[in-house]
Amino acid sequence: MAKVYAITNQKGGVGKTTTSVNLAASLAATKRRILLVDLDPQGNATMGCGIDKSSLEYSVYDVLVASKPISECVVYAPECGFSILPSNQDLTAAEVELINEIGREFRLREALAMVADQYDYILIDCPPSLNMLTVNALAASTGVVIPMQCEYYALEGLSALINTVNRVKQLINPGLEIEGILRTMYDGRNGLTNQVTDELRRHFGNKVYSTVIPRNVRLAEAPSHGLPILFYDKQSKGALAYLALAGEVLRRAAAVETGADVSTNSQAEQIHG
Length: 273
Description:
40% of the residues lie in helices and 17% in strands. The chain has helices at 16-28, 44-48, 60-65, 94-98, 107-113, 132-140, 152-171, 191-204, 217-221, 229-232, 237-258; strands at residues 3-7, 34-38, 75-77, 82-85, 121-125, 143-149, 177-186, 208-214. It has an eight-stranded mixed beta sheet, with helices on both faces. A hairpin with a 4-residue loop joins β3 (75-77) and β4 (82-85). α1 packs across α11 and α5 (107-113) runs parallel beside α6 (132-140). The protein is globular and about 50 Å long. The N and C termini lie far apart (37 Å).
């Protein structure tokens, strides 16, 4: 059965979609079967995989509101190496249309259960808010990956997100855990970056990924070409960082399954934008 990770942070501009697309591509490069779920009405992950969101026949909206099977809505992105459940502006209506529906928090979980044996990892790109779509993602997931910049205000936002995760775990998904906290747009030369890193490690210990994602121009350019960084510039610092993150994700998963103490040290911390 697939491991399902919600990639979320209610703060915008922290690299959620960049992480969703590029982690999916990097995991797919290791021959894992990957499904990326675009749960953001902006559809940026969809476009970042080279798919025209304006010409979709079906999207995640049809899965959540019309209970259409995921297998009929998934699109394979051949240049990326993985499948995607795409999104577009139709999804903005989903929260309103689901408001009076019984079990609305579990729509995505029920849909994913039908295809979970077809994938190794399912990654969910969440919207930048703690709304019903995000709750659906958290209810469907086994783990939460939190991308964040090493800024002062990011710590306050992280606290609110952790409270939401704990609330969902308490009420509707007892198996939900923080999979990892990912430092994005990282610059180790910045004193505040190091202070925030120290604070994160003090509170979350080994939940903080050793891998960091540097500021990288090529990484920022890749979405405009409809490609993950791995297929846009595989030698760039951004590509190397996401490959390192995929390796760390796989090692952590293996450690959980075997009960082993697997080191998650990564050379990616030496990569600075």
